[in-house]
C-alpha cells in the first residue's frame, strides 16, 4: 500500500533514494523495483531486519533491474548518517508526527538532498487524525506514538523554514479513515467484530484492487483521505537569509 505517488516524486532509475522511517519497507521496495539506489532507514531494530530481508528477496527473485542497489541502516532522523547533498529523493512517510523535534528532522532532509532534489512527506491529515485523538488517547498517547497533528499550511511552512520549496500535494487512503475511527471508538486493543469486518474489506481492496473501491477512494480522498502528501524541492540556488527568516517567523505564528 503506497502513499507516495512516484510520478509526482519524479523518481527515475539510478537515483539515490533515502526512505526515512521505512517501517517494513513498502516505499523502499517500490523504489528498488524502479531501479533506484535505495537507502532505507529506521530506528526500530525489527523494522530494519524485516526490510533488509524483503529487499534481499526481491533481489533474489530478479524483480529489480540491473543497477538497482539497496542498503538498510538503523538511524535517527535528527542525525542522519548521510553526507551533505548526496541524495536525489527522500521519502518521509508517516514518520514526522512521531518526532518531537521535527524542525531538526526537516533540516536534516534539506541537508542531505542534492540541489534540485525532491522530498515526499506524508503525515496523518488533520481532520481524520483529530477525530482519532478525540475518540481515544490510546491511539496516540503511547511510547513512540503521535506527538502532533499537522495542518497542511503549517507543514508547508515548516518545510519552507527548513529551506525547501513545497509544491504539489494530495490526500490518500480515504478507506482507512473509517477503519481507524471504528477502532478508536471501540478501543484500539479490542478485537471487535465490526473492526475485523472492516479490516477484511481493506485486505480485499489491497489484494484484489477492485474497481469499486478504487473509484470510491478517488472520490473520497479529497474529503476524508487519511494521509496528506506534500512534495517539496530543494532549490538549486539557496534562498537569501532574509527570505528564510521571514518564513521562520511566519511558521512560528
From TrEMBL:
CDD domains: AdoMet_MTases. Pfam families: Methyltransf_11 (PF08241). One of its GO terms (molecular function) is S-adenosylmethionine-dependent methyltransferase activity. Gene3D superfamilies: Vaccinia Virus protein VP39 (3.40.50.150). Residues 18-120 form the Methyltransferase type domain. InterPro entries: Erg6_SMT_methyltransf, Methyltransf_11, SAM-dependent_MTases_sf. This is Methyltransferase domain-containing protein. It comes from Geodermatophilus obscurus.
